[in-house]
Amino acid sequence: MSSTAFGSISLDGGCIWKNELKISKFRNRDGRKLFVRSSVASSPQSLQFAKTKTENSEKSVRIGVLGASGYTGSEIVRLLANHPQFGITLMTADRKAGQSIGSVFPHLIKQDLPDMVAIKDADFSNVDAVFCCLPHGTTQEIIKGLPKGLKIVDLSADFRLRNINEYEEWYGQPHSAPDLQKEAIYGLTEVSRKEIQNARLVANPGCYPTSIQLPLVPLIKANLIELRNIIIDAKSGVSGAGRGAKEANLYTEIAEGIHSYGITTHRHVPEIEQGLSDASNSKVTVSFTPHLMPMSRGMQSTIYVEMAPGVTIEDLYQQLSISYEDDEFVVLLEKGAVPHTRNVRGSNYCFMNVFPDRIPGRAIIISVIDNLVKGASGQALQNLNLMMGFPENMGLLYQPLFP
Ligand SMILES: NC(=O)C1=CN([C@@H]2O[C@H](COP(=O)(O)OP(=O)(O)OC[C@H]3O[C@@H](n4cnc5c(N)ncnc54)[C@H](OP(=O)(O)O)[C@@H]3O)[C@@H](O)[C@H]2O)C=CC1
Ligand SMILES: CC(=O)N[C@@H](CCC(=O)OP(=O)(O)O)C(=O)O
């Protein structure tokens, strides 16, 4: 047994045993990335004393969840229940301040956590890092007032657009924290790992932009697709709209039908175009139409592209395969297999595949995620793991829920 910055660990064969957590290490061929796969309850020491979770007091990083009474905040709380190093010491709410997490979300009733407080009453002296799960607009004001030493992953859209004029154009209000915007790193984990590792403030990507950029960025970087005529038809579960009551999100308005919204005007357009333009070093524009589906979680993006001259579907498939071969959470399915939102539900996975169109030279790309996990709280946790120097998959190896 030895002591490290992460607590005490012991070596056993090719694995590390940490408390009752089995951690097997995997490195890239070039030795760069370290991943772990972990499992509980089977270490030599723990066979008779299996614990299902590490107690908060044993964890090394103290976490604040701002907006814990919302969908993404409560999803962070759910995910952190199995995180060996992140322990929640502070949770905030607005209308629900003063309540316990279990009274607001009965599925979290077994979490032994402090009651939620209003942000104005929050004590950050006991916090090392925060997940900020608040509405955009509100967030920049709140982050401005946080202690400077905190690491922050912001799930809102407030720090995603580098150009604050563009922010004002699409979000209808001037940016009130331009200096913080300069500091923020856009956190599409698989694309910007190095920058995220050194960041203090990470702008977690939107759900639609995550599902769209993951397949397109490597194909654009490799010059395999044309930058014109990229058409994205995307569909989201209703939890993407948050928990706040809105007439448009009533069961009767959503059930037994689908509808498009934000046609040509959705605020994720500039975020998607920023990421694709970075990948190509030139201005990329896209046609993007989101749809609301009668399901609680899940997101599918179906993307129609033109292949570059001489490029085949096999080339696209090979490129995605190479780009993501070492990535835990991005899964290129076997050729011909169709990604399905049900198969990633509750997990941090993005499943994707490419298909030839009937029209020669065109391809159809399908990518699915859970909007609340890889599209929000899961990716946020993946990013904070990196920012705190932990393996990015720590506490995130939830298998999808099925059926
Ligand atoms: N839902 C999703 O799939 C995704 C959401 N996001 C983004 O993440 C952020 C959170 O989203 P989501 O969890 O869905 O939203 P919810 O509406 O479900 O939750 C919002 C949270 O913010 C709190 N809150 C609201 N207004 C204020 C305020 N003025 N001051 C302090 N706290 C406030 C609410 O408290 P209370 O309930 O107590 O009033 C609640 O805890 C948003 O910016 C959203 O755009 C990003 C990716 C995906
Ligand atoms: C179904 C639904 O309403 N989805 C939200 C996007 C959710 C998301 O990613 O939001 P942020 O960019 O705000 O973080 C929307 O279309 O505005």
From TrEMBL:
<keyword id="KW-0028">Amino-acid biosynthesis</keyword>
<protein>
    <recommendedName>
        <fullName>Probable N-acetyl-gamma-glutamyl-phosphate reductase, chloroplastic</fullName>
        <ecNumber>1.2.1.38</ecNumber>
    </recommendedName>
</protein>
<comment type="pathway">
    <text>Amino-acid biosynthesis; L-arginine biosynthesis; N(2)-acetyl-L-ornithine from L-glutamate: step 3/4.</text>
</comment>
<dbReference type="InterPro" id="IPR058924">
    <property type="entry name" value="AGPR_dimerisation_dom"/>
</dbReference>
<dbReference type="InterPro" id="IPR050085">
    <property type="entry name" value="AGPR"/>
</dbReference>
<dbReference type="GO" id="GO:0070401">
    <property type="term" value="F:NADP+ binding"/>
</dbReference>
<feature type="domain" description="Semialdehyde dehydrogenase NAD-binding">
    <location>
        <begin position="62"/>
        <end position="199"/>
    </location>
</feature>
<dbReference type="GO" id="GO:0051287">
    <property type="term" value="F:NAD binding"/>
</dbReference>
<keyword id="KW-0055">Arginine biosynthesis</keyword>
<feature type="active site">
    <location>
        <position position="207"/>
    </location>
</feature>
<dbReference type="InterPro" id="IPR000706">
    <property type="entry name" value="AGPR_type-1"/>
</dbReference>
<keyword id="KW-0521">NADP</keyword>
<comment type="similarity">
    <text>Belongs to the NAGSA dehydrogenase family. Type 1 subfamily.</text>
</comment>
<dbReference type="InterPro" id="IPR023013">
    <property type="entry name" value="AGPR_AS"/>
</dbReference>
<dbReference type="Pfam" id="PF01118">
    <property type="entry name" value="Semialdhyde_dh"/>
</dbReference>
<dbReference type="InterPro" id="IPR036291">
    <property type="entry name" value="NAD(P)-bd_dom_sf"/>
</dbReference>
<dbReference type="GO" id="GO:0006526">
    <property type="term" value="P:L-arginine biosynthetic process"/>
</dbReference>
<dbReference type="Pfam" id="PF22698">
    <property type="entry name" value="Semialdhyde_dhC_1"/>
</dbReference>
<keyword id="KW-0560">Oxidoreductase</keyword>
<dbReference type="GO" id="GO:0003942">
    <property type="term" value="F:N-acetyl-gamma-glutamyl-phosphate reductase activity"/>
</dbReference>
<dbReference type="InterPro" id="IPR000534">
    <property type="entry name" value="Semialdehyde_DH_NAD-bd"/>
</dbReference>
